[in-house]
TrEMBL record:
Name the record gives this protein: Alpha-1,4 glucan phosphorylase
Residues modified to N6-(pyridoxal phosphate)lysine: K671
GO CC terms: cytoplasm
NCBIfam families in alphabetical order: P_ylase
Function: Allosteric enzyme that catalyzes the rate-limiting step in glycogen catabolism, the phosphorolytic cleavage of glycogen to produce glucose-1-phosphate, and plays a central role in maintaining cellular and organismal glucose homeostasis. Phosphorylase is an important allosteric enzyme in carbohydrate metabolism. Enzymes from different sources differ in their regulatory mechanisms and in their natural substrates. However, all known phosphorylases share catalytic and structural properties.
Keywords: Carbohydrate metabolism, Glycogen metabolism, Glycosyltransferase, Pyridoxal phosphate, Transferase
Organism: Celerinatantimonas diazotrophica
Keyword Transferase: yes
Length: 826
């Protein structure tokens, strides 16, 4: 009889400490072929993963069996990014066996935290888009919905970031050099991907014109499945990632003739497709590789979906009832055209039937309002790489303009040009977002404000055509990883307050608000926060050699480095405080540690300059004895999921300071609030909804609204007006032109000042500067009142249950996917 804890009935794969210990030892001996005395930490970690996988693979088999027997409708989540992080701790928690595993490993002389650190991050994403996808597939499994995630099995994930004299240096991120215990290769499901070549028009036996694509090259897509364990282990779905390999990857004749390198040329070309996440597309070759990547994973995924459908169905009459595909941003848009090609060219459907199916199975999530982020591809590039697809796009566009636009706006060629999928100009372009909107039966934004801007600013004419297509699904995060696993002491406090079921019903935390005024609860809550700050302080010292004070405000900004996210506005605040301290050494301010984490795209020069500036300013401040420990600046290298899991529980202040109207949603704001940090932010993205949930009194809002931003830009915004009218702002900007932070190298930081003045300050940093400084002063004053700050922190944590990816998924199911729950393991 297993001695189970109170919650064990929720976890069908629960096992006790002794059973887990026996399993680890068995796999150490029989799977890895080593013994306790010889095993290194990597071997112990792999043996632990094998013990976990005993349960995971049983759950996976049961899920496959259940879904196959019922022939369920399923969602297929197509995303170029899945920022999974590490899975060891996550899977242990989701199976309900973290504590037995921890205790079993302790008896073997192993620390579970050190063991988990053996796992490399699965960094198959860039930021919020990829982390959201990871949260969503976790929630789909937790809620028991049939789902498959599809993406690319990148050999190198997002680059590993190093700093050299403050500059970002990119290094390869080889996440699976020694294999990955979580993945399973499925050679029986390999797909072939055609590329290049030409299209032939022929008459079929029925007298109808038919198109035959003669590819110039074929590539194989090899699927690797990563089990996605739902909380409780009742459902284990899969994330299927495609690896590219040459169809005929070794030319023996060329090799024997002495062409040792040329013999593997095809192999190298094919493998480049899944080599790296987001190849630099500044060059024509980079653009071609990027488009090829997108088609490769969509082609493999569509063929896989059709293959599984045809196991149970003889025709496509039920396809739209069984299959729904969610396009996570525009990267998988080519899937629409690929399905048309498969249905018409391979399956023999006529155009109307094929298009009718496509209109019912595809839905599109928009993640950005920035025009430069809405993908467009040169027509010539399409013609070279995907000639048949370009023909289909032309036909889709022709029918759309003639059958839809012309009926709504007869004789209006200007609107036709405006809405055409093909953008006319010196270089003709295919507008992928327009293709999405024309085909998909639903288009959603990811926060209430963002979804309104999608209708009003991004696709206003499309909204006039199809108002019923547009909807909103506010983003969410999984509380399993972003609270229970990364902040276990706070999770335990919540267990004591509201019971153990909050990880699957986050709204239960509202009861915690009842304790917000209680001194004893405040002390417990803030003691956990302080302990997390101490852990982060230790990590900062170990990684960077910088001593930081856990009593100080931990002011954290972690997100992709981009001008619209305004890390340089944060820098202006740091410079302002530093200047004030130098002018008045007795200045009474709360000690503050500014902590950054961000990677800049390799080709994004100004973003890299902002990283350099923050590092050089931090270097000067951290060494300046006149500051007397009142300020510290830390830019942690190689920001990733694992680092975020340590930073978020330690945050006092969450920086969410993007220009209003530019951030679609944000999810870092949700993670920080859930872990008891206060938000300083603009009325942008999900900040708007967070404010509604936590109340005006528990958040620090500043800056222009989205409407005011629009007005300023339309009326001729002049950033120099703010520069000349604010002496303090002028002084800190001029400081960047000097060699104060870069001795003997004046002007090394000038590009930031020039972007704000000569570059026109496109994201209105200077317009929001004074409001931001004032809000930060309010933060300083509030932090002095410990009881008030504690109450505000508790209210933030208690009131953000809405921002739960389980709720997001339920919204998708009700509004878009129309799925049924089928938990497989009881």
């Amino acid at each position: 009889m297993i001695n189970v804890p109170a919650a064990a009935e929720d976890f069908p794969f629960y096992l006790d400490k002794d059973a887990f210990k026996d399993s680890v030892l068995n796999h150490l001996h029989s799977t890895l072929g080593t013994i306790e005395e010889k095993a290194n930490p990597q071997a112990w970690w792999k043996a632990t993963c094998a013990a976990i996988n005993e349960r995971v693979f049983v759950g996976l088999s049961e899920t496959h069996k259940a879904h196959s027997n019922i022939d369920t409708r399923a969602v297929h989540y197509l995303s170029l990014e899945f920022l999974m992080g590490r899975l060891t701790r996550n899977n242990l928690y989701n199976l309900g066996i973290f504590e037995p595993a921890r205790d079993a490993l302790a008896e073997l002389g192993l620390d579970i935290e050190e063991l988990c650190n053996e796992e490399p991050d699965m960094a198959l994403g860039n930021g919020g888009l990829g982390r959201l996808a990871a949260c969503f597939i976790d929630s789909l499994a937790t809620l028991g919905y049939p789902a498959i995630g599809y993406g690319i099995h990148y050999e190198h994930g997002l680059f590993r970031q190093e700093f050299r004299d403050g500059q970002q240096i990119e290094r390869p991120d080889s996440w699976r050099d020694y294999g990955n215990p979580w993945e399973i290769c499925r050679p029986e499901s390999i797909q072939k991907v055609p590329l290049f070549g030409y299209v032939e028009t022929v008459f079929g036996n029925d007298g109808q014109l038919r198109k035959i694509w003669h590819p110039g090259e074929m590539v194989r897509g090899v699927p690797w499945d990563i089990p996605v364990v739902g909380y409780g282990g009742h459902t284990v779905n899969i994330l299927r990632l495609w690896e590219s390999r040459a169809d005929d990857y070794f030319d023996w004749d060329v090799f024997n003739a002495g062409g040792y390198v040329d013999a593997q040329a095809e192999k190298s070309r094919a493998e480049a497709i899944s080599k790296v996440l987001y190849p630099n597309d500044e060059t024509p070759a980079g653009k071609q590789l990027r488009l090829t990547q997108q088609y490769f994973f969509c082609c493999c995924s569509l063929k896989d979906i059709v293959r599984r459908y045809k196991r149970r169905h003889d025709d496509f009459s039920q396809f739209a009832e069984q299959v729904v595909m969610q396009l996570n941003d525009t990267h998988p848009t080519i899937a629409i055209v690929e399905l048309m090609r498969l249905l018409i060219d391979d399956e023999g459907l006529d155009w109307d039937n094929a298009w009718g199916i496509c209109e019912k199975v595809f839905a599109y999530t928009n993640h950005t309002l920035l025009p430069e982020a809405l993908e467009k591809w040169e027509v010539g590039l399409f013609e070279n790489v995907l000639p048949r697809h370009l023909e289909i796009i032309y036909e889709i566009n022709h029918r759309f303009l003639d059958d839809v636009v012309a009926k709504k706006w007869p004789g209006n060629d200007e609107i036709k040009r405006e809405l055409s999928i093909i953008e006319e100009g010196s270089v003709r372009m295919v507008r992928m977002a327009y293709l999405c909107v024309v085909c998909c039966f639903k288009v959603n934004g990811v926060a209430q404000m963002h979804s309104e801007l999608v209708k009003k600013d991004l696709f206003p004419k499309f909204y006039e055509l199809w108002p019923e297509r547009f909807t909103n699904v506010t983003n969410g995060i999984t509380p399993r990883r972003w609270l229970k696993a990364c902040n276990p002491e706070l999770a335990q406090l919540y267990d004591d307050c509201v019971g153990i079921h909050w990880p699957t019903n986050l709204e239960m935390l509202k009861k915690v608000a009842e304790y917000a005024d209680e001194k004893d609860f405040q002390q417990k809550f803030m003691a956990i926060k302080h302990k997390n700050k101490q852990k982060l302080a230790t990590l900062i010292h170990d990684l960077m050699g910088i001593e930081v004070n856990p009593e100080a405000i931990f002011d954290i900004q972690i997100k992709r480095l981009h001008e619209y996210k305004r890390q340089h506005l944060n820098l202006l605040h740091i410079l302002t405080l530093y200047r004030r301290i130098l002018q008045d050494p007795n200045l009474d301010i709360q000690p503050r540690v500014f902590i950054f984490g961000a990677k800049a795209a390799p080709g994004y020069r100004l973003a890299k300059d902002i990283i350099f500036a923050i590092n050089k300013v931090g270097e000067k401040i951290n060494q300046d004895k006149r500051v007397a420990g009142k300020l510290k600046v830390v830019f942690m290298p190689n920001y990733r999921v694992t680092l975020a899991e340590k930073m978020i529980p330690a945050g006092d202040l969450s920086e969410q300071i993007s220009t209003a109207g530019k951030e679609a949603s944000g999810t870092g704001n949700m993670k920080f609030a859930l872990n008891g940090a206060l938000t300083i932010g603009t009325m942008d993205g999900a900040n708007v909804e967070i404010r509604e949930e936590v109340g005006d009194e528990n958040i620090f809002i500043f800056g222009l609204t989205a409407e005011e931003v629009d007005l300023k830009l339309k009326n001729g915004y002049n950033s120099r007006d703010y520069y000349y009218n604010n002496p303090e702002l002028k002084a800190v900007l001029d400081w960047l032109d000097s060699d104060y932070f870069t001795p003997n190298a004046p002007g090394q930081l000038s590009s930031i000042k020039h972007s704000l003045l000569d570059g026109g300050d496109p994201f209105l940093c200077l317009a929001d500067y004074q409001s931001y400084i004032d809000a930060q002063q309010k933060v300083d004053e509030t932090y002095r009142d410990k009881a008030k700050w504690a109450k505000m922190a508790i209210m933030n944590a208690a009131c953000v249950g809405k921002f739960n990816s389980d709720r997001s998924i339920d919204d998708y199911v009700k509004e878009i996917w129309k799925l049924k729950q089928y938990p497989a393991v009881q």
